[in-house]
Write a structure and sequence with these properties.
The protein has helices at residues 48-56, 98-108, 113-126, 142-154, 173-190, 201-207, 225-230, 235-240, 269-275; strands spanning 4-11, 25-32, 37-41, 63-68, 71-72, 83-86, 161-165, 193-198, 210-215, 218-223, 247-250, 252-254, 257-260, 263-265, 283-287, 292-295, 302-312, 316-323, 326-333, 342-347, 352-356, 359-360. The protein is of the alpha+beta class and 362 residues long. The two termini are 35 Å apart. Bound molecules: adenosine-5'-diphosphate and magnesium ion.
């Protein structure tokens, strides 16, 4: 188990990178703490696999250093790094049996035979593979093969970290849920440093203690699921996490208020202070649908909206409304009165955040 630290690690797949757009990873400076369970979350192409391959040593970063527990491993090949990596698609030996496949990483390290057998049985039981240990891997389904890949990632208990690169892509939804729970159990028991890559927010939020959100080659936020929900550091996090995502309303500073499409909202001094000095930037107020409610009369922080749609989604109502050119979504309690065609949506100041050029201010 190790702490994995990035000191200005950046990577470009191009020979002579110049502009930021030439980089698959822009300079990163953060750490995965020893023993933590992390999800690495971001859309396809944002650099997740590139980062994992830099950790495991399959890829040398074009800039910066990687440290494991204070030791610089940037130049070390994968075999010297003691990392288990599970890929998106099964990587197993078809000609070997399930047991031989699971034993392979241990045999490679010269473990005594009895220890290997014990550990293989343990992992097989954990992943519900025990009854097929003697079968040849070539005869298994895609699901079963991927379970073996997971087992190979979990079989060693002396690794610095285990990296999972969207490992459940080929697995059916129900089994996915079970395996995710298993991985959580394994983490609670062995406390390996776990990095689990996914582009699915639900997977990330249920699995991880901390989530690293990536966007266009950048880590835009590292935080607990609650922090990502309550204080998105970047508009991408606001929009990507939550269902539906955060509302972003373009605004500008005007006198003692903040103006959204002609409506003055009086959020108070802290917001004005944040907005001052940022006049040159693209300013937006960010508010989650959960933190908007319908007010019976206009007030200092209400927005006059035209309600375009009300959907009853069981335990809440989803309201879609327009303020000038902007669409706003609000989630109301199931027993809240249905808003009429024109309504006043109230912002709660403590849940209203200011963004300048997409980044949280203050
Ligand atoms: P993710 O895993 O988040 O989908 P990747 O790390 O695979 O993203 O890719 C990040 C960016 O780098 C993408 O724009 C991708 O096209 C590019 N890329 C990935 N691998 C290579 C490669 N071997 N050669 C050139 N470009 C690559
Ligand atoms: Mg990938």
């Amino acid at each position: 188990m190790a702490e994995i630290r990035f000191a200005d690690v950046a990577h470009s797949y191009r020979a002579n990178p110049k502009a930021p757009a030439d980089y698959a990873l822009k300079p990163l400076r953060f750490a995965f703490e020893n023993g933590g369970a992390y999800a690495l979350l971001g859309p396809s192409g944002c650099g997740k696999t590139t980062l994992l391959n830099i950790i495991s040593g399959l890829l040398q970063p074009s800039e910066g250093r990687v440290w494991f527990d204070g030791i610089d491993v940037t130049g070390l090949p994968p075999a010297k790094r003691n990392i288990a990596q599970v890929f998106q698609f099964p990587v197993i030996y078809d000609t070997m049996t399930v047991a031989e496949n699971l034993a392979f990483p241990l045999r490679n390290r010269g473990l005594p035979k009895a220890d290997i057998e014990k550990r293989v049985v343990e992992v097989a039981e954990m992943l519900d593979l025990a009854r097929m240990l003697k079968r040849r891997a070539s005869r298994l389904t895609a699901d079963e093969k991927q379970k073996i890949s997971l087992g190979r990632g979990l079989v060693r208990d002396d690794v610095a970290a285990i990296l999972f690169d969207e490992p459940l892509t080929v697995i059916d939804p129900h089994l996915k849920w079970l395996l995710r729970r298993k991985l959580k159990e394994v983490h609670a028991r062995f406390r390996h440093t776990l990095v689990y890559v996914t582009h699915d927010q639900n997977e990330a939020l249920t699995f991880a203690e901390k989530v690293v959100v990536m966007y266009e080659g950048e880590v835009v936020q590292l935080g607990t699921p609650q922090e990502l929900f309550e204080r998105p550091a970047h508009r991408f996090v606001g929009y990507f996490i939550g269902s539906p995502g955060m509302n972003f309303l373009p605004c500008r500073l005007a006198g003692d208020g903040i103006l959204i499409d002609g409506t003055d909202v009086m959020l108070g001094d802290p917001w004005l202070a944040r907005a001052r000095g940022r006049e040159g930037a693209r300013l937006e107020l960010g508010v989650r649908p959960e933190f908007l409610h319908v007010s019976t009369a206009p007030g200092p922080t209400t927005l006059p909206v035209a309600v375009t749609r009300v959907e009853d989604l069981g335990n809440y109502k989803l309201v879609t409304a327009r303020l000038g050119p902007h669409e706003i979504k609000a989630k109301l309690d199931e027993d809240a009165p249905v808003p009429t065609a024109t309504a006043h949506l109230a912002l709660a100041p403590q849940h209203t955040l200011l963004y300048a050029d997409g980044r949280l201010v203050g």
